[in-house]
Structures are given as C-alpha cells and as structure tokens.
Write the structure tokens for this entry.
Amino acid sequence: QVQLVESGGGLVQAGDSLTLSCAASGRTFHRYTLGWFRQAPGKDREFVAYIGWRTNYTDSVKGRFTISRDNTKKTMYLQMNSLKPDDTAVYYCAADADGRYYSPEAYRYWGRGTQVTVSS
C-alpha cells in the first residue's frame, strides 16, 4: 500500500494564494501519474489537475493553479493563485492512474484530503 498525506489547506480570502502538498510513501513514486481532485459539499469529486509525462488542468483553474512534483522528496504540490469562493472544497491527492487521468476511478491510491475555504 502507498500512503498519501495532504497538507496546506486553510481559510483564505478571495484573491489569495495557497500551496497544497501531498507527501507519499513507497519506492515507486517516480513511476506514478499523480492527480489532484476536489469535492465541495453536496457535489461529486471533481478533477483538478494531473501530472505524468505531461500536465493538464480543468478549465476552471487554468492560468491560476500549477501542479508540480519532486520525485526525490516524494511530494506533489498544487500552487493555487487568485482563489475564488467556488474553489472551496476538500482537496485530495491521488496516485497511480491507469491512463484515464481525468477520472477518480483511474487512481489506485488516495489521501484523506485537506480543506480549502475561500471567503468572499
């Protein structure tokens, strides 16, 4: 089993920035496609970004969020700028996708999430 632990969430105002981290265990981190998802109250889990051989983002965060990884530290990051109230959600990191990078069902491993709340 691979363990993933998110950190960096918090309460911020609209327009602020926040950086999330996802620390991983295991010896094959460098082989994994990694993703960020989020889930707001009463809504389904939503794709945010992934990073593998390439990166991609959901349209609502393009130009504002940046996904990155440090394989030596076994850590993935999500830099979030110009935050909006609609970004409020629990953010989850995920690892080891089967190629369907936009789908939560594609990932084998998940963290427990970190809360991001953006006030207006």
